Amino acid sequence: MRIAFLVQRFGLDVNGGAELHCRLVAEHLASDFEVEVLSSCALDYVSWRDHYTPGEERIDGVLLRRFRTKQTRDERRFGLISQEVFSGPSTIEKQRLWLREQGPFMPDLVEFLRKNINRYDILIPFSFRYYHSYECVRLFGDKSILVPTAEPDPAVELPIFQNTFQKPSVILYNSPESKVLVETAHHNYSVPSIITGVGIEEKRAGDINETLAKYSLVSRPYIIYIGRIDKNKGCEQLFDYFIDYIAGDNRPKPELVLLGNNVIDVPDHPMIKHLGFVSLEDKLALLKGAKLLVMPSFLESLSMVLLEAWANRKAVLVNGQSDVLRGQCIRSNGGLYYRSKGEFIVALKELLTNDFLRSRLGSLGNRYFRINYNWGVIKRKYEQAFEIAVRGQNNRMASSA
User: Fold this and answer.
1) How many CA within 13 A on the CB side of residue 2?
2) How far apart are CA 193 and CA 180, in angstroms?
3) Per residue in 16-54, pLDDT tens?
4) Which domains does the chain carry?
5) Whole-structure pTM value
6) Distance in angstroms between the alpha carbons of the first and the last residue of the chain
7) DSSP 38
8) How confident is the model over 71-103, as pLDDT tens digits?
9) Rounded (5°) CA angle 94-233-96
């Protein structure tokens, strides 16, 4: 069976979100299937400017085909079109223009699929809101298994995506909350679906003591945030809550360690340490050395960082305003959640002072991770989706004969 993944960016330099999700699944399926990835030449997810050379290459055993983006994003024009699309009713034509202006706009990828569709048994487009997924499902719905990575986002409700959610042979949701979100918007209850998710990168952590010394983290305990440092990820709120926590009396005073590239300013505060992008080995060592992981994001379809924390038996403290994060904590019993500054302060103090609770939450999270997100489970769910899609193709061929 030959499978093609379609995703907006791909490569070892792209280390988060739907793109990492796609890469990990593709790599794990490549041992049992013929796997290709079709993607853009972009590295930057804002401008979508070509960075890589178009053509073919292999990354960790997976054949990658890169296609040029036909235009970069004009932020002013895109902003004006977005305002028109999301401020009230808009035409399908205007929504198509928004889809194109958002990027990455890759008509060469679509043309390649048109000419070579018989090469592939299954197409797996990632992220519903991009041009490649929209065109893939529109043209080849019977071969498409959509991984929408849908989170609370006004784009979910746009009429242009009605077919995107109605026509795939199967939809692989990241969480029950993501499934409810999509089905409420598009009433696509008859489309077969599986709540699937993803495993994590499997690599040995670096030496904890050496890593802590390397980053000058030996003097006091710390809590850790891993991900893009962005307002949309709740980081501004996290800074505000954490600084108020530190200013209080009669509570442990950990450092807040930030891993990841920043697109907003990090406060100049003696208890906040931004380490930027670090190697996977260092990231895992720093996670193991932390008291707990904090995840302040409002918008998620599945937090892979929570899975990494639980794989390493770490308790988590998450933003309860995210249905997905709150749901992950409730299902796993692997962490606490907050919905206000007061709840953040109380929960953080409890986790830092109650060693038994922190250890128990980490153990329960680890159990939940091993049962639901080991790669054997994930691969079996993809294989189940392939069976559903192929059976549907065969039934359609038989009925048209």
Assistant:
1) 8
2) 11
3) 789 999 999 999 999 999 999 999 999 998 999 999 999
4) 2-199+374-400 (3.40.50.2000), 208-372 (3.40.50.2000)
5) 0.90
6) 23
7) E
8) 999 999 999 999 999 998 999 999 999 999 999
9) 10
